[in-house]
Amino acid sequence: MKTLSTLLMALGLAGATQAAAPAREAPGPETGATTILKWKDGKQAVFLLEFDDSCESHIKNAIPELKKRGMVGTFYINPGNGPFKNKQRAWETEVPAAGMELANHTFTHSHALDVADFERELQQCTDEINKCYPDRKTPRLISYGQPGGVKKEKWLITKDETMATLAKLNLIDRPPFWGPPLHQKSAAECLKTIDQALAKGEMGHLDFHGVGGDWLVTPLDWFRAILDKLEAHREQIWVTDPISWHKYLTERKAATAKVLAADAKQIRLQLTSATDPALYDLPLTLATRVPANWKACTVMQGATKTKVQVAGGLARYPALPGAAEIILQPAAD
User: Fold this and answer.
1) Which positions ≥6 away from 314 have C-beta within 8 Å?
2) Domain CATH code at residue 321
3) In this predicted model, what pLDDT tens digit does every residue of 229-256 receive, in sequence order?
4) What is the pLDDT of residues 284-294, one digit of tens each?
5) Is residue 1 part of a domain?
């Protein structure tokens, strides 16, 4: 009996000891764990500013306002038409030098009588665009916007024929036209489009014809309000061109970040994407969990070497899919 009593006391003591022991903490995030961020630099949303028809008011009004704020606009040109020819030197030299993007709106904004006619219109426009960026590689992806207002009897090709021709010429169809004064009747309605992109965490866009002049005019005060709104949310919104948005989105959806090795001294990663690296060559933004004592780190990929600060245990940096291994090492603050 004494033996049983002693045994029960021992069991009770053991139970008390177990109950008093503190619960083990959950293991921390794994060193080297890497996330491909949704948008460049971890921005919350994306916004595109697009301009049609080579309007002279783009040269006079829109581009100076964009340049003043360090923002990019994408201009869908018709090199065979009068408005472009009237400002041809500016379109060919000053606009690219200002950091703006030129895009394909067909050569004359007139017709697609058959596939051969459509291809000829597109190729002539692309040839002009390439001439404006002599340092850029070819072939490369260029944005395309179908001309509006073309009579049905002059647009005789099917949607499938259209898309096949675009693919052949490395053209990417832009989102459907959406902009003032056709869809937004006030500056407030334009600003709401920006709010919606932020709320959804997705891409938003506004498309323009005339800005303070020409046709289908967006008043200049509306335009400035739009840019000021984007400027106020610069930390949350990636204002970019449609090809950069398309590349990032397409690459990200097809990308994988694999940890090759990780310890207190070094992290090695491989970033791959199923996209064609000859056309999809935009760096993605990665966030990698590093050891707790790393306050800054050096990120190397091939010949590229950058120093980034660590925040919340994460190093955030750009990396190119399909290129050399990514190596992270601790760096002095």
Assistant:
1) 287, 288, 289, 290
2) 2.60.40
3) 999 999 999 999 999 999 999 999 999 9
4) 999 999 999 99
5) no
How does DSSP assign 81-148, residue by residue? SHHHHHTHHIIIIIHHHTT-EEEE--SSS--BSSHHHHHHHHHHHHHHHHHH-TTS-SS--EEE-PPS
Last residue of a domain, one of 235, 269, 284: 235
Rounded distance between C-alpha atoms, residue 129 and residue 102, angstroms: 6
Q: Which residues partner with 286 through β-bridges?
A: 36, 317
Indicate whether 74 and 189 sit together in one domain: yes
Long-range residue pairs from 26-31, CB within 8 A, at least 24 positions apart, any chain? 29/289, 29/313, 30/262, 30/289, 31/262, 31/263, 31/264, 31/267, 31/289, 31/290, 31/291
Q: What is the mean pLDDT of residues 122-143?
A: 98
The total of structural domains in the chain comes to 2
- Residue-number span of the structural domain to which 100 is assigned: 45-235
Both structure tokens of 116:
């051969």
- Distance CA(144)–CA(172), nearest Å, equals 6
| Residue 242 covered by a domain | no
> In the predicted model, what is the mean pLDDT of residues 197-211?
98
Is the pLDDT at 24 greater than 70, yes or no? no
The region that residue 140 occupies, defined by phi over 0 for left and psi between -120 and 50 for alpha, beta otherwise, is beta
Residue 249 and residue 284 in contact, taking contact as beta carbons nearer than 8 Å? no
Please answer whether residues 229 and 194 qualify as being in contact, where contact means their C-beta atoms are separated by less than 8 angstroms.
yes
The pTM of the full predicted model, rounded to 2 decimals, is 0.90
